[in-house]
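Support reply, case 0932

Customer input (verbatim):
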Amino acid sequence: FFAMWATRRMYEQGTTVETFAKIAAKNWNHARFNPYAQRQSKTEVTVEEILASSPVAYPHTSKMACAAGGGAACAIVTTKKMAQKLANGRPLVKVIGSQSKSEHYTDGHIFMGAVVGPADLTTRTTQALYEQSGVGPKDVSFVHVHDAFPIEELMYYELMGFCGEGEGDRLVAEGATSLGGRIPFSPDGGLIARGHPGGPTGLAQVWDTVTQLRGEAGKRQVEGARNGMVHMMGAGSICVMHMLQKEG
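Our regenerated output:
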């Protein structure tokens, strides 16, 4: 399914295989500084290495695809009073928006199974989250998305309003979604490199977001992080998103 999505993008927008490889390499290199990442390279991963890895389904190679693996994660949600007690002086992080939307019928749509619904599912959920939280794309410090393959991350740049339709390739070329860029995506390595252990993968995003907002992410820290957005697509299809914010 994702391979078909990618080749359609290449046909309609002129996206190159190298663009997909740049997204994957970026995530592998973010994961180098995440001690909990499944795929950790000792050296910087290049676009050439991504392209040279074994093919999965054109245009995706094995280093573009999320790896199979296990894992666990948890998030503790409590009252502000209890959070202050447990924080030991660290900044508090609050959930200022939470949205969940399911797949709906659109003209010409054919349900593809437990992968991902219509392209506008993420757009509808994102817009509802922006409205609820009062935070727009210009106010978001970094983003975690369901990037099981690079085509997903590329499409979400546009579907979430961080650039116009067809402009995602330019963000990749400019390095805007890398650490140090305008809007870093998947600072923990994402599903491609941090790992995608089914159920816990969304909570792993929440853990990293809290770590970032507290300023505790070390070499992968997003400078001045205040608002972090997390996004999951799942079987059904369903989209679940949260906006987390550093207090103060």
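We compared this against your earlier run and they match. Two observations from our side: The CA atoms of residues 109 and 248 lie 45 Å apart. Strands lie at 55-57, 60-61, 93-102, 142-144, 227-234, 238-246. Please reopen the case if you see a mismatch on your end.
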